[in-house]
Design goal:
alpha/beta; binds phenylalanine; about 375 residues; five-stranded parallel β-sheet
């Protein structure tokens, strides 16, 4: 019957359970959305091939928010009201998660952000989770790397002023860098629509920093790097997870060009020999015509796996309804209780503040690849 699950040959054949997803499948951060979606779908396909949730397959209903805050809220409201998802996965960009999370929290629909790192996201309420670390840690990791490895004493920072992620990392990097005795010599800002960064960079050049921290998204980081080199700035650039895109290097003039040798902090390295990571890389390539996964894909995958594991731990709803308020509350508690889950980005434990506590890695741009440099533990 339609209400109960069933399995045949290991494949789930029961009534589907809808998982909502919102992301930037188009727009200037489109690789964030598509990578995450590919990762989440891989998780869901594996879960369904193994019998689904008590015989019910998971099905992903995804909406494109085009990277725009207004659209993020609109599509999440549509998901909640029309699609009745068990939970919602998204967004990548903190700014968009912050826009949409209040609607999820008010409707008591658990939301799991795969990769939003700004602290404000999960502070919105008890139904909002993430499977990644947060920016006070990421900004500190970058500042420690700048001081200890790059031997930087003077840093400049370029901030995307309208992006919570960028302003947050600027603050946390500054705190840590100055605490370690360093000086921030300049902190000019830009916006997402800017194409010309020469005037900010000329000011920075005159102040002679040892490193330039650029906590932005790949679409602007490439051109910033290119223009910095055109002005004769040779010091390394340092960034955060927002650099992680197959389009990063292209925007900087190509492999071996403006970003060669620069560094950024990220969630995981695909070179990590940990079997959980290598199994993911292998499965992702097989499912995506040999395309390499990035950290976004791994985090999308982990969001799906943690959700499925939490649904299993929450147990079967007595009335068969996986979307009732009573069931979603049970599911919320199960997500909150996630402990040592072996994800494709490492072990995931959800803390009291609904954030995951995990190490960060530093990667270096070498040609078109991002090479593992070191791990920074919390
Ligand atoms: N952490 C970024 C944010 O909060 C999003 C991001 C995550 C981008 C991972 C790239 C890789 O806005």
């Amino acid at each position: 019957d339609a209400g109960s699950g069933g399995t045949s040959n290991g494949t789930a054949t029961g009534t589907p359970i809808v998982v909502g997803e919102f992301g930037s499948l188009s727009g200037s951060e489109s690789t964030f959305g598509t990578s995450t979606d590919n990762g989440l779908k891989l998780a869901v396909n594996q879960i369904n091939a193994a019998g689904g949730i008590d015989g019910h397959p998971l099905t992903v209903k995804v909406y494109d928010d085009e990277g725009k805050p207004d659209s993020a809220l609109t599509v999440v409201q549509r998901l909640i009201n029309q699609d009745k998802p068990i939970a919602i996965v998204g967004e990548v960009a903190s700014k968009l998660s912050i826009q949409a999370a209040p609607a999820c929290n008010a409707a008591k629909v658990p939301m799991i952000s795969p990769s939003s790192t700004n602290p404000k996201v999960t502070q919105i309420g008890p139904y909002i989770f993430r499977v990644c670390f947060i920016d006070p840690f990421q900004g500190t990791a970058a500042a420690k790397f700048a001081v200890n490895t790059l031997k930087a004493k003077r840093a400049a920072i370029m901030t995307d002023q309208q992006n919570d992620y960028s302003t947050g990392l600027t603050k946390f990097f500054t705190q840590s860098f100055t605490q370690q005795g360093g000086t921030i010599v300049a902190n000019p800002s830009y916006t997402k629509d800017d194409l010309d960064f020469h005037s900010q960079l000329a000011n920075i050049k005159a102040l002679n920093p040892d490193v330039i921290y650029v906590p932005g998204y790949y679409g602007q980081v490439g051109p910033i790097a290119k223009q910095a080199r055109q002005l004769g700035i040779t010091v390394p650039l340092l960034g955060g997870d927002g650099w992680d895109s197959p389009k990063l290097v292209e925007g900087a003039g190509g492999a071996g060009q403006a970003l060669e040798g620069s560094y950024f902090t990220n969630h995981s390295s695909m070179e990590n020999p940990d079997p959980a990571i290598q199994n993911f890389v292998k499965a992702f390539k097989a499912a995506n015509s040999n395309g390499e996964p990035d950290a976004l894909a791994a985090l999308g995958y982990d969001a799906g796996q943690v959700l499925a594991d939490s649904i299993k731990r929450a147990g079967k709803p007595a009335d068969g309804d996986y979307t009732s308020e009573a069931y979603r509350t049970k599911l919320r508690d199960a997500i909150a209780a996630t402990k040592d889950f072996p994800g494709a980005t490492g072990k995931i434990t959800i803390g009291a503040d609904r954030n995951a506590v995990k190490p960060a890695v530093v990667l270096q741009v070498k040609g078109a690849a991002f090479k593992y440099v070191t791990t920074v533990n919390p």
